[in-house]
Amino acid sequence: MTTALAARRSYWLLVLLVVIWGASWPVVKTGVTAVPPIWFACLRYVTGTVCLVAVVALRGELRYPPPADWKLIAISGVLQMAAYSGLSAVALTRLPAGRASVLAFSTPLWVAPLSVWKLGDQIRWRERIGVGAGVVGVLVIASPGLLRAAHDQLWPYALLICAAAAWAVSIVFVRAHRFHASALALAPWQTLVAASLLLPLAIALEGPVPPMNARGVASLVYVGPIATAFAYWAVVEIGRSVRATTMSMALLAVPGVGLLISALAFHEAVNLSLGLGVVLIAAGVLLTTTGAAPLPRGDEVDCTTPSAIAQA
User: Fold this and answer.
1) What is the per-residue DSSP string for 133-164?
2) pLDDT at 28
3) What is the pLDDT of residues 172-193, one digit of tens each?
4) Is the Cβ–Cβ distance between 98 and 268 less than 8 Å?
5) How do residues 45-68 score in pLDDT, each as one tens digit?
6) Rounded to whole angstroms, how far apart are CA atoms 222 and 66?
7) Angle, nearest 10°, between helix axes 183-206 and 37-58?
8) I need a labelling partner for 255 at 20 to 30 A (CA). Which of 103, 228, 241, 265 fits?
9) CA 52, CA 185: separation in Å to the nearest integer?
């Protein structure tokens, strides 16, 4: 395959990835109405692990990870996958999918201050303004719950903010990690850690594995093999031909796609608080993620891939 043809295929694959991850929010919303949320997150990573093992094995890369990568596997599996997906799934039992996708996508806002603390990065004025705009956007979107000042209205928003913060911590660690195996080769081990953590938690909080109807099965078939396993492979393939900065900008469309599909599928209202919050968060994410010094070519795939998968 020529370089031009590979690049063209990668850009189309990137468009498909944005659609898949955007659609995953309403799909998960449907799934958690049929399967308890912690069980849903657990079964997502069980099916994702099976599919990723098959993909990595077919590529001849299935092997025990190097000891130096196990810390990354643990942190990514616990924070980026188990915590992010579990908390988001629970929040989706109470919040509309579009609103939830926008709030959960606020993660880049929390990465900036964490990078200053952990990595010694210098935060510029535009990034400070971006963080401020994004935080205001989060508060605006959560304003209906804040105005009601009711416990049952506030906790779903708090869970999503915690999910975004967990993902941010993982991203900062990934940036500082030096990979010894490829991102794709580590993927099934990360999803295995997530599934292993969520399984006892689901049993303890929600009882034995529940019977599933067609909606639950269909949702899991989508988010496990497609939005997790296929998407992880797609990110690696895209990263071979598309710059990490280009991929990051394209992924800004994910919550917009999720919001659009939610509005069409669930007739979710895009009211003033949601519309204004989307604008503020999008502006904040743009200000905090653009203009950064590019990574060396050899680091682009590995640094982008593990953090990007949590978009779903």
Assistant:
1) HHHHHHHHHTHHHHHHT-HHHHHHHHHHHHHH
2) 93
3) 777 777 888 888 899 999 999 9
4) yes
5) 999 999 999 999 999 999 999 999
6) 31
7) 160
8) 241
9) 9
Q: At what angle do helices 297-308 and 231-239 cross, to 10 degrees?
A: 160
Q: Are 307 and 167 in contact (CB under 8 A)?
A: yes
The C-alpha angle with vertex 161 and arms to 155 and 162, in degrees rounded to 5, equals 85
Q: Which two tokens stand for residue 77?
A: 């599996």
Q: Give the pLDDT of residue 153.
A: 63
3-state class (DSSP) for residue 307: helix
Q: How far apart are CA 135 and CA 283, in angstroms?
A: 11
What single-letter DSSP state applies at residue 36?
-
Domain range for 105: 3-311
Per-residue pLDDT tens digits for 212-223: 899 999 999 999
| Residue labelled with tokens 């949320």 | 37
DSSP H helices in the chain: 3-31, 37-58, 70-75, 84-92, 97-104, 107-119, 125-141, 143-148, 151-176, 183-206, 214-221, 231-239, 244-250, 254-266, 272-289, 297-308
What single letter denotes the amino acid at residue 255? Answer: P
Q: Which of 220, 228, 245 is nearest to 300 (CA)?
A: 245
The pTM (predicted TM-score) of the whole model is 0.79
**Residues in the chain where the model's pLDDT stays below 50:** 149, 292-311
pLDDT for position 311: 46
